[in-house]
Amino acid sequence: MLKVTDVGKSVKAFTGIKQAKEKPYMQFIDRLEMAIDKQVENDAAKDALLLKLAIENANSDGQKVLHHGPWWIPVRLVRPVLNHPAVTEAESRGSQQHIDVDNATDALE
């Protein structure tokens, strides 16, 4: 069942949630997932929307990592992969463009 928001409180459409340049990818994913959970009832639709918007609404650095990695997107959304040291190190530098993507595959094994 869909949740009704409090009177006077608006809900931002999940399609409008974008990753800000300075925000970590997982923070963006958590926010996106919460919004989708509040607005979509069907579990399969939730998963499909999360996968699609996780790529489309990521910032440019995040999109580079997502499109050029050796693994495909459903695996990328698994938190241990995104919390891999190569990803968190790049985020701490403020950019994901310098991530050593080859080393990130270690988290998948």
Automatic annotation (TrEMBL):
<dbReference type="Pfam" id="PF19317">
    <property type="entry name" value="Gag_p24_C"/>
</dbReference>
<dbReference type="InterPro" id="IPR045345">
    <property type="entry name" value="Gag_p24_C"/>
</dbReference>
<dbReference type="InterPro" id="IPR008916">
    <property type="entry name" value="Retrov_capsid_C"/>
</dbReference>
<protein>
    <recommendedName>
        <fullName>Retroviral nucleocapsid Gag protein p24 C-terminal domain-containing protein</fullName>
    </recommendedName>
</protein>
<feature type="region of interest" description="Disordered">
    <location>
        <begin position="88"/>
        <end position="109"/>
    </location>
</feature>
<dbReference type="InterPro" id="IPR050195">
    <property type="entry name" value="Primate_lentivir_Gag_pol-like"/>
</dbReference>
<feature type="domain" description="Retroviral nucleocapsid Gag protein p24 C-terminal">
    <location>
        <begin position="12"/>
        <end position="67"/>
    </location>
</feature>
